[in-house]
Design goal:
Elements (H helix, E strand, L loop, with lengths): L7 H11 L11 H14 L9 H11 L5 H17 L4
Helix pairs in contact: 3-4
Length: 89
């Protein structure tokens, strides 16, 4: 369905809940990443995520549910490529 046919309120709700800074970053939300790393460090375990919509797209299309630093590195490389190749809209 073309984006023009989707309710602007629905688009806003998804962006706010999943990636509030979507239009302001280029694939990585460094502020959220710092917060997530700090919280994980304090708790001594991995906790909340900080993936952007672009990172989630890369993961869901190409990398599945594997949890590893290798997957995150490959996901990051694809995120950069997606951000360069596709407009945000």
């Amino acid at each position: 369905m073309p984006l023009e046919r989707v309710s602007p309120n629905l688009v806003s709700a998804v962006l706010i809940s999943e990636d509030a800074a979507f239009y302001g970053h280029s694939g990585f939300d460094w502020t959220e990443l710092r917060i997530a790393v700090a919280q994980s460090w304090q708790r001594g375990r991995l906790g909340r995520g900080a993936s952007t919509l672009t990172q989630q797209l890369a993961k869901n299309l190409w990398f599945g549910t594997e949890r590893s630093l290798w997957r995150k590195a490959r996901e990051a490389a694809v995120t950069v490529k997606l951000e360069r190749a596709l407009p945000k809209r």
